[in-house]
Write a structure and sequence with these properties.
The chain is mainly α and 304 residues long. The protein has ten helices and two strands; from the N terminus they run H-H-H-H-H-H-H-H-H-E-H-E. The chain has a single domain, classed as Phosphate transport system protein phou homolog 2, domain 2 (Methane Monooxygenase Hydroxylase, Chain G, domain 1). The N and C termini lie far apart (77 Å).
Length: 304
């Protein structure tokens, strides 16, 4: 393979990355629109588009590997670029999965009235998609300075995510019937927060192509805080289940109080059957276990 042929191959791969980026941005925009309008039909269209995104990612990956195999020896700069194209394609495909996840949440909520107006979640999407558009542009142009500035905007997305978390927790504590939908909306916000983190990964690859240095741009303290909030999604739900179990046990004890004690009788009847606890998955886990990242241990349901 001549140098001219390699240059054409690399330019074609850059163009393919732009195509994949456009597909992912469209899916993300449409998924948040479907969530705001509770448009289940649009959500199903996003599901179908995810298959096209996956196919494009694999097509790019195959072309990169073929190019590396046929071009020997290869320059260090070209090798860094081709390896980074592989990584960026993977990041974009994962972002498409976030859009698919939000679309799945739309189908689970259906036409049920939203427990809060969607203001911060669309704003998170707007900022994250803007970051993605500029990050991919910087990668194509090998603009390291722009790539270094973009991750600073991730703090605004994190702040919006924390605000959504606090509002939803307050709503769920006030109204236990809102637990299911509150968890769905938390996962939608979580997907958008992770989207901004993956944009930072693309920026790191841009700097690697330009300078040969591969280092992390995000703060480890911020990451620890994000994991704390993500774990809180399950913690809040389990808290409600624990409170419900305690209430059920109190109710059971009241029902099982011997009548002879109340009436002052002398003879005790046969002992009543003790309450037993059996695992019973909630409606939330049954409907979403296949689409979420992982579920906590099965909650308990008490029956006399």
């Amino acid at each position: 393979m001549t140098r001219e042929t390699l240059d054409r191959k690399i330019q074609h791969l850059r163009d393919e990355i732009l195509v994949l980026d456009s597909m992912v941005q469209d899916s993300l925009t449409q998924s948040v629109l479907a969530l705001r309008k509770q448009d289940v039909q649009l959500a199903h269209q996003i599901y179908d588009q995810d298959k096209t995104i996956n196919a494009k990612r694999f097509e790019i990956e195959n072309e990169v590997i073929t190019t590396i195999a046929l071009q020997q020896p290869i320059m260090a700069g070209d090798l860094r670029l081709l390896a980074s194209i592989l990584e960026v394609a993977g990041e974009l495909e994962r972002m498409g999965d976030y859009a698919k996840g939000i679309a799945h949440i739309v189908t689970m909520i259906g036409k049920e009235p939203l427990i809060k107006p969607l203001i911060d979640i669309p704003r998170m999407a707007e900022i994250s998609i803007s970051m993605l558009h500029r990050a991919v542009g910087a990668f194509i142009e090998v603009d390291a300075e722009t790539a270094r500035r973009i991750p600073d905007e991730d703090d605004e997305v994190d702040n919006l995510y924390n605000q959504v978390y606090r509002e939803l927790v307050t709503i769920m504590f006030a109204n236990p019937k809102a637990i299911d939908q509150g968890n769905y909306l938390m996962w939608a916000a979580h997907n958008l927060e992770r989207l901004a983190d993956r944009v930072t990964n693309i920026c790191e690859r841009t700097i690697y192509v330009a300078s040969g240095q591969l280092k992390e741009l995000s703060s480890s303290d911020d990451e620890a805080l994000k994991h704390t909030y993500s774990g809180g999604i399950w913690g809040v739900t389990c808290c409600f289940y624990a409170r419900a179990a305690r209430a059920a046990r109190r109710w059971q004890r009241q029902l099982s109080t011997p009548a002879w004690q109340i009436a002052g009788g002398r003879t005790a009847p046969a002992p009543s059957r003790q309450a037993t606890c059996t695992p019973k998955p909630s409606r939330f886990w049954q409907r979403s276990a296949s689409s979420m990242m992982g579920a906590p241990s099965t909650p308990m349901s008490c029956a006399g």
